[in-house]
Specification:
Layout: E1 3-7, E2 10-12, E3 18-25, E4 34-39, E5 46-51, E6 58-60, E7 68-73, E8 78-83, E9 92-98, E10 108-112
Parallel strand pairs: 2-10
Antiparallel strand pairs: 1-3, 3-8, 4-5, 4-9, 5-6, 7-8, 9-10
Length: 114
């Protein structure tokens, strides 16, 4: 059974940083493209980033480009999202996802507030 467990969210001031983690199990993690999405209150779920199986290819949403970095460690089945220069509008629940599947984690809350 697929499990995706996000962690690392919290409250941070504007300009601060957080690193999110998503630990995966129940599938062949090293063969899958992994993604991060987010959903702010009252808004549609928004694409944040994806990373290919071997970490060679990655892509970011326009709103996070140059501030967020996606990475993965296939040895421990974990995908990360390093978030720098956080803005108020980055406040959302962040989810990891297996590309081309309906498997989502439960999400982790990120709140950017002064």
């Amino acid at each position: 059974q697929v499990h995706l467990v996000e962690s690392g969210g919290g409250l941070v001031q504007p300009g601060g940083s957080l690193r999110l983690s998503c630990v995966a199990s129940g599938f062949s993690f090293s063969n899958k493209t992994m993604m991060w999405y987010r959903q702010a209150p009252g808004k549609e779920r928004e694409f944040v980033a994806w990373i290919g199986p071997s970490s060679i290819n990655m892509h970011y949403g326009d709103s996070v480009k140059d501030r967020f970095t996606i990475a993965r460690d296939n040895d421990i089945n974990t995908v990360y999202l390093q978030m720098n220069s956080l803005k108020l509008e980055d406040t959302a629940v962040y989810y990891c996802k297996i590309a081309l599947s309906d498997s989502w984690g439960q999400g982790t809350q990120v709140t950017v507030s002064s």
